[in-house]
Amino acid sequence: MNATEETRKPRVGLFVTCLVDLFRPVVGFSAVKLIEAAGCEVDVPMTQTCCGQPAYNSGDRADTRAIAENTIRAFEGYDYVVAPSGSCAGMLKKHYPGLFRGDPTWEKRTEAFAAKVHELVSFLADEMKVTSVAARHDGSVTYHDSCSGLRELGISAQPRALLASVEGLTMREMRDPDVCCGFGGTFCVKYPDISNAIVEKKTETIREAGAETLLAGDLGCLMNMAGKLSRQGSGVEARHVAEVLAGMTDEPPIGKGGR
Amino acid sequence: MQVTSPAFKQNARGALADVQLQKALGNVRAGFIDKRRKAMDALPEFDRLRDEAKAIKDHALASLDLYLEAYETKVKASGGHVHWAATAEDARGIILDICRAVGARTVTKGKSMITEEIELNDFLEGNGIRPVETDLGEYIIQLRGEHPSHIIAPAVHLNKEQVEEDFRRVHDHLPVARDLSEPESLLAEARRVLRAQYFEADVGITGANFLVAETGTSMIVTNEGNGDLTQVLPRVHVVVASIEKIVPTLNDAAQILRVLARSATGQDMSVYTTLSTGPRQEGDPDGPEEYHVVLLDNGRSSMLGTEFQDMLRCIRCGACMNHCPVYHTVGGHAYGWVYPGPMGAVLTPSLIGVDKSGHLPNASTFCGRCEAVCPMRIPLPRMMRHWREREFERGLNPATQRWGLGFWAFFARRPSLYRLGASIGIPLLSLFGRRKGSFGTLPLAGGWTKHRDLPSPQGRTFLQQWRDRDTLRQEART
């Protein structure tokens, strides 16, 4: 009997997402720490780029498919594929299969891949049955439900449950946490005025909540809200929920300097 | 109605700067969202009812031709007439002929989006026939020379003070001292004026929420009772309905009714549910002498069998727009044609062409709330994306967008080039932005920085750092 085979840890391929890779690596390292703490082994394929949403949501199927094939090739060997984003995980899990429907070589392959994909926090809570984290955060937070994570993957209770286990943390829910922040990927630059009107309403509810820190599970939404809060001169700090859950909040919050 | 969908961006800018409109849109939450929520919470089987309602419509659409023919047979058997209209123009012509045959001068109208779609009011007026809208909201916007900004609440873009002003302007017999400050007093005034019109009208025109194949019945749901008076008092009743309103049986209609009003206004049922089957029969106390149904296609049959067929399940409850963050900020008129909000963003390109209405399916954050609340489970974001695909195939998107996308995709498809580019560009960007933490302006990022700061990258990319960490680990091992 092979002992190492018996106790082999699940191997997780981290799909770090392009925004985390480029703008906020600490979210990636927080994800690694959390996944390892849940008893998994983490690997990061170097051939990953982006999930393809900018092309997909612009109607460009050919580029989307090429990008999807690249992602599937890079990740299909792992036990799990985990992304610190509901939007990108939703793309991999819910939208990739539709791209290859009816394709004899790719359809089954994509479905097998999609079945392994999870968003980070729901992976910890639902798959790894993590009920608490070993982290401390002295202060109050409010949590925004990013749309894709909420409506495509049903992520809402999991981050709140794990945040409740963080020592010193107080949750102050905002009004309508499930309403879109106005980011919408390329939407925010295609229709900047409408996007702005939506995020203005969002930052109003964030300020009303009276929390020191805004958390969410998607960096796109966070950069939008943090960018607006910064423009409005608000003191509310923004972080990815993984940073708080991993206790990795030494870096300045999103959009703040000081290094 | 002039199509202004190509000017969506300008329309939206105007809407955002319109103080009255913004105030009125602020009422949508309490007026629709909260009420719908309460209705859902009170009915635990709501989601199951949605599945059943969806299945009924899917079944009807799969055999649309058979059910339409069955419906026609039943209408004829009850003494009514059925007219098939392939286009809006055909429908207008048919309705005009019916009106002329009875020498009609005044036509009362129940609330109907289909008559908006075929631009009936302007057409009738141009032919010397006076249309009178009898739904309060429709009456108000007719006074103002506007079009509905919402499919079930046509005047939702207005505040009561504006309506008072309109009434004082048009109802010139009103004494100055007459109180018109509350919705109730406005309603009483409209009702007083409209009562006389019902008796004067030669023809009453209504839409239909359902056409029942089993019985040849048309059904409308209203809250004011105006629809009943419109169809019962004049000599002639004309129903104008699009072909996808068909359901097989009365039971089916009753099933869908259970999700309709709850999704629309949060009511269990609308105040009036009115069934019409043919003209007045022997022994009926009232009813029209003639009963006509105009069945409009206007592009719908060409949606059958395509990725847009699901849109034909729509029962026009308005829940999608009530929950849409984009609709909340720009209102219905900005969409530039008859149907606003998410359902309009899918339907409008089908009916008038995506070349004219390309902004509509693009102006969505894909937040998915519309699909989440749709009682008929219509995958609205997915279909908006399909329209974007049609646009992309035909090269209709702006050139700058296509170039930007092409540039990005070139790298996203080539991992090593992507990594190389990022490992040079990102640390450089971070160098400039690190101290402040964000950029107020940045070349090529004007769309972003116009309204918000752009957070600066933290430093080297995650993949760079990870590779270094891996290398160190391996060195430590050897």
Structural notes for this entry:
The complex is a heterodimer of chains A (259) and B (478). By secondary structure, chain A is of the alpha/beta class. Chain A contains 14 helices and eight strands. Chain A has two domains: 9-126, Rossmann fold (3-Layer(aba) Sandwich), CATH 3.40.50; 131-245, Rossmann fold, CATH 3.40.50. Chain A has helices at residues 3-6, 18-23, 25-37, 53-56, 61-75, 86-99, 107-115, 120-127, 147-153, 157-164, 187-190, 192-209, 219-231, 241-245; strands at residues 11-14, 41-43, 80-83, 117-119, 136-144, 167-171, 213-216, 237-240. In chain A, the strands form two sheets. A four-stranded parallel sheet of chain A has the order 2-1-3-4, with helices on both faces. Chain A has a four-stranded parallel sheet with strand order 6-5-7-8, sandwiched between helices. Chain A is globular and about 55 Å long. The N and C termini of chain A lie far apart (53 Å). Chain B folds into three domains: 1-42 and 309-397, Fumarate Reductase Iron-sulfur Protein, Chain B, domain 2 (Orthogonal Bundle), CATH 1.10.1060; 46-252 and 280-298, Rossmann fold (3-Layer(aba) Sandwich); 414-477, no CATH class. In chain B, a hairpin with a 4-residue loop joins β5 (210-212) and β6. The mean pLDDT of chain B is 95. Classes of the chains: A alpha/beta (259), B alpha/beta (478). Chains A and B meet through α2, α3, α4, α5 and α9 of A and α1, α15, α19, α20 and α21 of B.
Brief descriptors of the model:
heterodimer, A: 259 residues, alpha/beta, Rossmann fold, 2 domains, four-stranded parallel sheet, 8 strands, 49% helix, 14% strand, globular, B: 478 residues, Fumarate Reductase Iron-sulfur Protein, Chain B, domain 2, six-stranded parallel sheet, four-stranded mixed sheet, 24 helices, 12 strands, 11% strand, elongated
